[in-house]
Specification:
Elements: H1 4-20, H2 25-32, H3 46-67, H4 75-98, H5 101-122, H6 127-131, H7 134-153
Helix pairs in contact: 1-3, 1-4, 2-4, 3-4, 4-5, 5-7
Keywords: Membrane, Transmembrane, Transmembrane helix
InterPro entries: TspO/MBR-related_sf, TspO_MBR
Membrane topology: Multi-pass membrane protein
Length: about 160
């Protein structure tokens, strides 16, 4: 039988790399031209932060899967984990495709709501699963706020 951690990890990697391929060089150039708030001194750490958050998400899903009764696999929760990862990974492509920072703000906010719902639903199955979602729940509003501020800095005035 295939180990749950292997299935969860492979699915997470496939989703992450598959959706990251939706980023375009043109969108990346557009995003790099956007003005940032002066206090955004930690931008170079953002890839590391997201790597830690995604690892915590995979670990959380694994904890939930292992804590659930064998006779009743938590398919619904696994679907929510997948939806959360899709929301996280669509943040950048949504801005790149539309060349619109508001798209990122909306996707970021929607992801946080999904993450909060997931954390609440996971708690009865695995408290550790919920604890491992806390980094996302803390970071996501920061990233969404940065994008929202950038939207204001880069708005086109008539």
């Amino acid at each position: 039988m295939i180990k749950s951690w292997l299935v969860i990890g492979v699915v997470a990697i496939l989703v992450a790399f598959g959706l990251a391929r939706l980023n375009t060089p043109e969108g990346n150039r557009w995003f790099n031209r956007q003005r940032r708030p002066h206090w955004l001194t930690f931008e170079k750490l953002i890839p590391v932060i997201w790597t830690v958050i995604l690892i915590c998400g995979v670990w959380s899903a694994y904890n939930v899967w292992e804590a659930a009764p064998a006779a009743n696999p938590p398919w619904g929760l696994m679907a929510l984990y997948l939806l959360l990862e899709v929301a996280i990974m669509l943040y950048t492509p949504s801005m790149f495709w539309f060349k619109n920072l508001r798209a990122g703000t909306i996707v970021g906010a929607a992801g946080w709501i999904i993450g909060l719902i997931l954390a609440i639903l996971v708690y009865p199955v695995s408290a550790m699963g919920t604890i491992l979602l806390i980094p996302y729940l803390l970071w996501s509003p920061i990233g969404t706020y940065v994008t929202w501020v950038m939207e204001g800095l880069n708005s086109v005035e008539s």
